[in-house]
Amino acid sequence: MSTDTKTTTKSTVDAKERGLVDRFTASPFVSRLLSNRLALAGITIIVAMVLIAIYARLFVDLDVITQSQLGTNPNRAAPSLDFPFGTDGQARDILPRVAYGAWYAMLFGTVTVAASTTLGVSLGIIAAYYSDVTDNVIMRTMDVLLAFPSLLLALALVAIFPDDLGLWRAVAALTLVYTPRFARVVRGAALTVLENEYIDATVALGAADPRVLARHVLPNCLAPITVQSTLNFGLAIIDLAALSFLGFGAEAGTPSWGLMLSNGVSQGLLTGVWWWSFFPGFFLALTVLGFNLLGDGMRDALDPRMREAVD
Amino acid sequence: MISTRFVLKRLLLLVPVLVGVASLVFAVLHLSPGDPALTIAGERASEEFVQQVRESLGLNDPIWVQYGRFLANAAQFEFGESFIIQRNTSVREVLTNKLPVTLELAIYGQLIGIFLGIPLGILSAVKQDSFTDHTTRIGALAGISVPIFWSGPLLILLFAQTLGWLPTSGRISVLYNVEAIRVTGLVTVDTLLAGEWEMFVSAARHMILPASVIGIYSMALISRMMRSSMLEVIRQDYMRTARAKGQGAKITVLKHGFRNAMIPVITVIGIQFGGLLGGAVLTETVFAIGGIGTLLVEAIKVGDYPIVQGTVLTFAFLFTLVNLGVDITYSILDPRIEQ
């Protein structure tokens, strides 16, 4: 352990003399993360998916993959050189549809995670800082939301929003479902930060509440927030697909992974058309795996007990 | 031992949460678009008839009167009659019929998860950084990343469609009438109670795929928790003491390590059970099993509000009870927690 502390201090001193990139990689957290092969594999998968998503958004014609291609393409064709992932019941090429699915997953996943992080972090910090009544009102409300199995709460909430919102209503419902988790994690972290003397000092110097919270409490809670967001990203992508799968998300015809899987199960399963389920599901699982690998690596890199175990 | 006071205190704390849960369900249904009176009366009913239905449902009362009535009824588990799915049947009856289906699936899935996940987790921890450890860890991560609505269809395609070893969907072969021998509603138990061996085999064969899909997921979560918890325990002083006094490595791990490492694993099993109830919606859809998961989806789609209310509250109630059970088990395993 002692050698580890020495090297860390030394690298921090050195870092001041180097550029931004060096300083970034010299941070003990980042270097531990980058030395974790599984986390690196996760990052690789995520980067690949983001590239596929951007490529699909820029170069795939949404009309062609949404509308029926009967007459143009062979119907229900098995994977071949022309159609590597085969074609579906409306003769649409499945490959570009799966690629476009990556765009939907990344876009809607990002919005869901960003919205629930913002909402949960704000509520958690406010609850910790103002304590008493505010704390009780916020956290007891969170308890109620946590009393439901998550997918079930999402199903119930989806019903509030009008049908024509499509995937956005799934995003709205899941945002509310995930918010309590962030609020809990952040409240706990913020309570520890608030114990520190520098907070008392800032308040004594006359800083307004928003400034204390944004400049001093929030930055010191970032680590748990980042880990929670990353792990939640994978969950959000699965849950968004699950809602579409059950018929409460993407509109019919949309190339979303959940909807393609739903089609594969309802129509392809009994006829043995395996490629309708296999490809969208494979990309979905791979993306989620990427986020879970990265999230796990981040947690290990932050957890001091894990460090000891490795040493 | 565990005190009655602790259990009572925990039970009392449940009351505000359950009132909150019921209030949320009430709010959600009142915010949802769609008019229940219109749903019952039908699109082409006369305005007078719709008004009549509205009056009989109490929808013309002030909102707080409706809210009070809803809470009072919910406390007695009374949600009225189903609008559409099973007209004129009480929600309580519909749920009593369907709940065992979901529970049976969740229990078998959980058992698979526990019996495979715990040994794998221990093995992984004891042989830390070995090939076994790496394989188990990557396998477990893959297990929690694969959605049920993908692994389910793939298993069906392989074992039912291609190999023909197992049935594709449902709970039991259509040749058998399970309702005739219904006692508990758990099909594997009822068939055994009736002494119908062939029916039991059919039910068990139908259970294998859906329970495995749930089991894989649950096994992944449990083995991960077991591993990290065991790793922490192995480094404790009492483990070293046990070894120092000459106890064998295996016995030390199983006798001293296991009990202590189980504490956080119990939590995961509890939380996981709640997740299974939510996941039941997906498993039941994939395998065409008529439990309360598929019931809920159907009810939301057609706007059968009493069923939606009843199902969601039942799920939340079960989930909360399981969590309470977890807390109590926790304090039995580690008496320090109670203080």
TrEMBL record, chain A:
InterPro entries: BP-dependent_transpt_permease, MetI-like, MetI-like_sf, OppC_N
Keywords from the named record: Cell membrane, Membrane, Transmembrane, Transmembrane helix, Transport
Protein location: Cell membrane
Annotated ABC transmembrane type-1 domain residues: 102-295
Protein name (record): ABC transporter permease subunit
Ranges that cross the membrane: 38-60, 102-130, 142-161, 167-183, 233-253, 273-295
Organism of this sequence: Haloferax marinum
Any single GO CC term annotated in Swiss-Prot or TrEMBL for this entry: plasma membrane
UniProt record similarity statement: Belongs to the binding-protein-dependent transport system permease family.
GO term, biological process aspect, one: transmembrane transport
Domain of life: Archaea
Pfam families: BPD_transp_1, OppC_N
Topological category with respect to the lipid bilayer: Multi-pass membrane protein
PANTHER family reported for this sequence: D,D-DIPEPTIDE TRANSPORT SYSTEM PERMEASE PROTEIN DDPC-RELATED, OLIGOPEPTIDE TRANSPORT SYSTEM PERMEASE PROTEIN APPC
TrEMBL record, chain B:
Stored Pfam families: BPD_transp_1, BPD_transp_1_N
Chain ranges of the ABC transmembrane type-1 domain: 99-330
GO CC, alphabetical: plasma membrane
Keywords: Cell membrane, Membrane, Transmembrane, Transmembrane helix, Transport
SUPFAM superfamilies: MetI-like
UniProt subcellular location: Cell membrane
Principal localisation: membrane
UniProt membrane topology term: Multi-pass membrane protein
GO BP terms in the entry: transmembrane transport
Transmembrane segments: 105-126, 138-160, 203-222, 265-292, 312-333
Family from the record: Belongs to the binding-protein-dependent transport system permease family.
Protein name: ABC transporter permease subunit
